[in-house]
Amino acid sequence: MTSDAIIAVIVFxxxxxxxxxxxxxxxxxxxxxxxxxxxxxxxxDRAAAxxxxxxxIMLLIGMMGIVAVLKRSGFFDILTxxxxxxxxxxxxxxxxxxxxxxALLSAFLDNVxxxxxxxxxxxxxxxxxxxxxxxxxxxxxxxxxLGGTATLxxxxxxxxxxxxxxxTFNQFLIYLSLPVVLCTAxxxxxxxxxxxxxxxxxxxxxxxxxxxxxxxxxxxxxxxAVPIDRRFLIKSLVCLIVVLLLFVTQxxxxxxxxxxxxxxxxxxxxxxxxxxxTILLEIEWSTLxxxxxxxxxxxxxxxxxxxxxxxxxxxLSAGSNPYVMVLLVLWVSGLASGVIDNIPxxxxxxxxxxxxxxDQPVPxxxxxxxxxxxxxxxxxxxxxxxxxxxxAAGIMKKYGEDISFWEYTRRSAPGALLSLVICSFVLVGYxxxxx
Length: 435
Fold this sequence. Notes:
about 425 residues
């Protein structure tokens, strides 16, 4: 390796460590690494700008803006109130309805936002019934990560993979819907079977039934006390549907997802006559800066030959058997994403997978689906594996339900490993049938 390559590796490793152990804000750590590379002359400013994937950045800004408007329209309030009513206070109903709704919403919206909306009402309902809210909250957090795996816009790793490789919204939906549905059903079933006592019917317990009835009544009363602007809500939903249709018809319109999302967000701001300053405050700028910094760091590693060395030393040494290659990418991605942030891991893996495909092509983009499934579902292994998990734990703490890293992992890891096993069978099946 050259001296520049060694410096790039050291800087990248230090930044990764700062992020993994939460010593520094993720965006600051990534940008600090970029500044060091610029100061030491390892890269110049033009190279840094060239490494940033602006398609990914546009897609993130657009979807964040749309979600921010949807929150203001009252859409999430209406949804949670109706879901709470449908459960009728049944423990299994809470698990299935809130888990299923979270997975479905997370396929099209930001999964962190979905968790922020769903978790508080799940805690209120389960507490009122004398149940352990931790089981239900962890299930909802896991469902958000599982559901987000199904589409191009559901989870950051998919956004990155789709933008870098040129995969469409429809391709993600076609290849990943099956494993996501199977894994979500399996994880919900696992929670039901491993916590039988918590899902017993409360119909024989008059005290619990009365408490639940009061809670549901209070939820509806609080909801009705806040006026909903129906025109605002309808315009927001129509705009979201149009953006999703543009994703689906990408092969016809030739509009990239980033352009479609950002255009949709801007149109939404205009037709609702919103103050742009207030919406901009809800955009996660630190996340966007974090992405930009990581793109530069990984781009530097690729330019200096580090990625090629890593690919040939670790992954290409596994041989040319497509079954081995697919399962290797899936399990390495899944296990790694459980202990480190799946966003930098995905950005690092993309050039490695490209080299694997250049050396030994695998049909139907199956290596990319393996990377997506591993990076997204592996986030369910531990508390720190995904942002949605950390947000869910933070909400629980506000309600006095402090959950440790090990307790979270003990409850989530079996379901995550089960998901990876199911994905292994699905990917092998795809390769056998389509290959």
